[in-house]
């Protein structure tokens, strides 16, 4: 369980996340949705102790993220941010191996290496493992970053727009991989998603933000509704029932 | 692995050549067969071996300092001469020479290192205040900062009649290396070993603050360790033989192109190629105008700026 209690972030006079409290249940996929600038990335960074809070507190699995030693958190929670620029020239396998750093401190054991190979296989990176990151396409690089974070093998995995740059096949396969991680290994996955249909199809829990505040939180049936979505995005969105799931149409 | 061994072999051969070239003829056969009166052996022990060791140590440690700098600043063009580090170190050395001339050389080096660290931190702070879009702006900012510090140092040196020393610190010259005058460079060698031990931390820090925190490391602490190593190596080199320009820039970039930036793998390569580069430039400087000698700083400056241009142009065409 991730518990945010009255979390606040300010930049000068602008309050970007405004006294927000939310509880993300343990196990399963939780999606955070909301318009650009709603504060999703800011919230996610604070949940993962990457950004200092101006108020409030966060606990992850009972541990206060700002009070607990960072290396302890690193074995509990992993995060991938929205934009990642590397100037260092690393191969995909090197990068993914660094996901094991919290355990092996740079001296990967056989077990660590098995984790690396598994993560590479999950994200279909086998053929690219020895390529340098700066020689990959955007989507391939995104998959390498996600592989690194999964390789960290933490109970909580936070991903900010992981489907960025991915084609349909790899987007689907990444979501299935994440779902399998929650079902088979009891992981808690928190995603920021812009495609509300992916959110609707795969999520167990949905958190909606708007203007730095919580707009809604609940199951897919509770949040993916025409009135809710109009409220959150300020536009008309038609929600249809397809194969028993909710699909939103917003193309026109 | 085999390629690295080959490089080590090349380094050893160059080291032997470096022992043999010089104003005084080295009668190897006479020495080996015992016909020598001991004169050559004395030169070898007092001047030649120290010089070759100094070249290897300075070359390896300066190249590693450049590599660390590039990982910490996260810019390919960062190195001690493009970040104010060298200029701050020589300002520190100047100040300590004026204020405490009797201080042993180790103390002077530490004072210079403190200044170097302060100058580098100032550079890091400037970079934080002025987020730069173009990676080429980063070294330009560093060179500008270095220019300002150097101007201050020149003014002080002029006042105290120390311009000659200031010049010596900024221009690497190994012709004065003798036994008893280069041993401080072992500090650099030691720090290079530390860099290899901490290599993974530096690579992680090279991924940026967020990746580092996510992996449970204290970013500021790794950054501090890296910058302290860079400052100490820089001042050890400046105090003993003077600055070797471009070295920290060229060698890590060439290594990055071939074996990548994973420092666990890159550090041995950077150390060996750094030594090879300096040994070759030094041998070149000794034979071009023999029996006169061209200072190493000049040779490296000429060879280095050509290679630097190549790197910049290459980067540009790759970015476009
Ligand atoms: N370093 C910063 N300084 C000032 N304002 C910032 C800073 N970082 C973010 N903001 C502002 O905070 C607000 C929330 O940003 P955030 O990145 O959390 O939005 P988001 O919901 O993730 O948006 P997106 O969907 O576009 O990724 C935005 O209005 C943004 O302009
Ligand atoms: Mg965002």
Query: What's the order of the H and E elements of chain B?
Result: HHHHHHHHHHHHHH
Strand content of chain A: 25-35%
User: How would you classify the helix and strand content of chain A by structural class?
Assistant: alpha/beta
Overall shape of chain A: it is: globular
Secondary-structure topology with pairs:
The complex is a heterodimer of chains A (252) and B (320).
Chain A: E1 2-11, E2 14-24, E3 28-33, H1 40-47, E4 55-60, E5 63-64, H2 70-74, E6 77-80, H3 92-98, H4 101-104, H5 110-122, H6 138-151, E7 156-160, H7 168-185, E8 188-192, H8 196-202, E9 205-210, E10 213-218, H9 220-223, H10 226-233, E11 238-242, E12 245-249
Helix pairs in contact in A: 3-6, 5-6
Chain B: H1 2-20, H2 28-33, H3 39-73, H4 85-99, H5 105-129, H6 137-159, H7 163-170, H8 185-197, H9 199-206, H10 209-214, H11 219-240, H12 247-259, H13 263-287, H14 296-319
Helix pairs in contact in B: 1-3, 1-13, 3-8, 3-9, 3-11, 3-12, 3-13, 4-5, 4-6, 4-7, 4-11, 5-6, 5-11, 6-7, 8-11, 8-13, 12-13, 12-14, 13-14
Bound molecules: adenosine-5'-triphosphate and magnesium ion (MG).
Adenosine-5'-triphosphate is lined by residues 11, 16, 34, 36-42, 82 of chain A.
Key features of this structure:
heterodimer; A: alpha/beta; six-stranded mixed sheet; four-stranded antiparallel sheet; B: 320 residues; mainly alpha; binds adenosine-5'-triphosphate; binds magnesium ion
Describe this structure as you would to a colleague.
The complex is a heterodimer of chains A (252) and B (320). Chain A is α/β, with parallel strands linked by helices and 252 residues long. Chain A is built from ten helices and twelve strands. Chain A has helices at 40-47, 70-74, 92-98, 101-104, 110-122, 138-151, 168-185, 196-202, 220-223, 226-233; strands at 2-11, 14-24, 28-33, 55-60, 63-64, 77-80, 156-160, 188-192, 205-210, 213-218, 238-242, 245-249. A six-stranded mixed sheet of chain A has the order 6-7-8-3-9-10, with helices on both faces. A four-stranded antiparallel sheet of chain A has the order 2-1-4-5, covered by helices on one side. In chain A, strands 11-12 form a two-stranded antiparallel sheet. In chain A, helix 3 (92-98) packs parallel to helix 6 (138-151) and helix 5 runs antiparallel to helix 6. Chain A is globular and about 50 Å long. Chain B has 320 residues and is mainly α. Chain B has 14 helices and no strands. Chain B has helices at 2-20, 28-33, 39-73, 85-99, 105-129, 137-159, 163-170, 185-197, 199-206, 209-214, 219-240, 247-259, 263-287, 296-319. In chain B, helix 1 (2-20) runs parallel beside helix 13 (263-287), helix 8 packs antiparallel against helix 13 (263-287) and helix 13 packs across helix 14 (296-319). The mean pLDDT of chain B is 87. Classes of the chains: A alpha/beta (252), B mainly alpha (320). The A-B interface holds A 45, 48-50, 69-75, 78-81, 84-91, 94, 98-99, 101-102, 105-106, 132, 149, 152 and B 71, 74-76, 135, 199-201, 203-204, 206-211, 213-218, 256-257, 260-262, 264. The structure holds adenosine-5'-triphosphate and magnesium ion. The site of adenosine-5'-triphosphate has 11 residues of chain A, from helix 1.
């Amino acid at each position: 369980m991730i518990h945010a209690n009255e979390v606040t972030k300010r930049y000068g006079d602008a309050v970007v996340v405004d006294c927000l409290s939310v509880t993300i249940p343990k196990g399963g996929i939780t999606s955070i949705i909301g318009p650009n600038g709603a504060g999703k990335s800011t919230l996610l960074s604070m949940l993962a102790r990457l950004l200092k809070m101006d108020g409030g507190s966060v606990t992850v699995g009972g541990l206060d993220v700002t009070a607990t030693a960072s290396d302890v958190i690193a074995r509990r929670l992993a995060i991938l941010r929205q934009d990642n620029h590397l100037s260092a020239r690393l191969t995909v396998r090197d990068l993914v191996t660094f996901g094991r750093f919290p355990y092996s401190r740079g001296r990967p054991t056989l077990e660590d290496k098995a984790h690396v190979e598994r993560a590479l296989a999950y994200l279909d990176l086998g053929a690219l493992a020895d390529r340098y990151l700066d020689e990959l396409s955007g989507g391939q690089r995104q998959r390498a970053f996600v592989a690194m974070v999964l390789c960290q093998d933490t109970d909580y995995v936070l991903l900010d727009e992981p489907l960025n740059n991915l084609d349909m096949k790899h987007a689907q396969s990444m979501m299935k991989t994440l779902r399998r991680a929650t079902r088979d290994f009891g992981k808690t996955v928190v995603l920021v998603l812009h495609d509300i249909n992916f959110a609707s199809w795969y999520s167990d829990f949905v958190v909606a933000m708007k203007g730095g505040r919580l707009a809604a939180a609940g199951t897919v049936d509770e949040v993916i509704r025409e009135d809710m979505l109009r409220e959150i995005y300020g536009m008309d969105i038609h929600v249809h029932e397809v194969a028993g799931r909710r699909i939103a149409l917003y193309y026109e | 692995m085999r390629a690295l061994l080959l490089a080590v072999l090349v380094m050893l051969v160059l080291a032997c050549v470096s022992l043999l070239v010089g104003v005084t003829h080295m009668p190897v056969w006479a020495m080996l067969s015992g016909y020598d009166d001991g004169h050559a052996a004395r030169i070898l022990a007092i001047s030649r071996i120290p010089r070759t060791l100094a070249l290897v140590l300075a070359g390896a440690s300066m190249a590693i300092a450049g590599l660390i700098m590039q990982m910490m600043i996260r810019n390919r063009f960062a190195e001690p001469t493009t970040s104010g580090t060298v200029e701050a170190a020589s300002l520190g050395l100047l100040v300590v020479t004026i204020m405490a001339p009797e201080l042993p050389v180790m103390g002077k080096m530490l004072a210079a290192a403190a200044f170097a660290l302060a100058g580098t931190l100032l550079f890091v702070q400037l970079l934080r205040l002025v987020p730069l879009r173009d990676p080429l702006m980063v070294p330009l900012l560093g060179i500008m900062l270095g220019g300002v510090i150097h101007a201050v140092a020149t003014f002080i040196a002029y006042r105290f009649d120390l311009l000659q020393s200031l010049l010596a610190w900024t221009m690497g010259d190994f012709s004065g290396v003798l036994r008893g005058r280069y041993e401080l460079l072992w500090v650099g060698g030691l720090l290079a070993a530390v860099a290899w031990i901490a290599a993974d931390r530096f690579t992680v820090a090279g991924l940026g603050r967020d990746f580092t925190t996510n992996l449970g490391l204290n970013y500021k602490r790794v950054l501090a360790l890296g910058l302290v190593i860079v400052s100490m190596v820089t001042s050890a080199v400046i105090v003993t033989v003077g600055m070797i320009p471009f070295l920290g820039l060229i060698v890590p970039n060439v290594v990055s192109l071939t074996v990548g930036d994973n420092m666990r793998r890159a550090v041995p390569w950077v150390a060996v190629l750094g030594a090879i580069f300096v040994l070759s430039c030094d041998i070149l400087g000794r034979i071009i105008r023999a029996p006169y000698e061209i200072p190493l700083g000049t040779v490296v400056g000429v060879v280095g700026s050509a290679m630097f241009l190549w790197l910049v142009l290459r980067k540009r065409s790759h970015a476009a």
